[in-house]
Design a protein that fits this description.
Distance between the termini: 25 Å
Order of helices and strands: EEHEHH
Radius of gyration: 14 Å
Structural class: alpha+beta
Strand content: 15-25%
Number of domains: 1
Helix content: 40-55%
Length: 86
C-alpha cells in the first residue's frame, strides 16, 4: 500500500483474493503539492497495485447512512458479479 494511505482507508479482501479499498473523502491534502492531479496519481497507483477502489463521502454517510451503505453494498456485489463472469 502506498505510503500514508493505509491510515485513511479500509481494505477488504474478496474470497478470490482481490483487495478492495474503501476510501472516504479521497485523500487528505497535505500542503501545496497535494492537488487533484496528485490524488488521481495516488488512485492510479492503487489500481496498478491491484486494488479495486470504492470511494464515498463521509458527510453523505453521516447524513444518509442507509443510502450510502446500500450504494457501497451494490458496488461490492457488482465487483463480485464481474469476477464470477470472468
Amino acid at each position: 500500500m502506498p505510503h500514508r494511505i493505509g491510515e485513511h482507508t479500509l481494505v477488504a479482501k474478496a474470497p478470490n483474493g482481490q483487495q478492495i479499498l474503501l476510501l472516504a473523502d479521497g485523500f487528505v491534502a497535505r500542503g501545496r503539492t497535494t492537488t487533484l492531479d496528485w490524488e488521481n496519481w495516488q488512485l492510479d497507483r492503487l489500481r496498478l497495485a491491484g486494488y479495486q477502489v470504492l470511494q464515498f463521502s463521509s458527510e453523505t454517510l453521516w447524513k444518509q447512512p442507509a443510502k450510502t451503505c446500500h450504494r457501497l453494498a451494490a458496488q461490492l456485489a457488482g465487483l463480485a458479479t464481474i469476477q464470477e463472469e470472468e
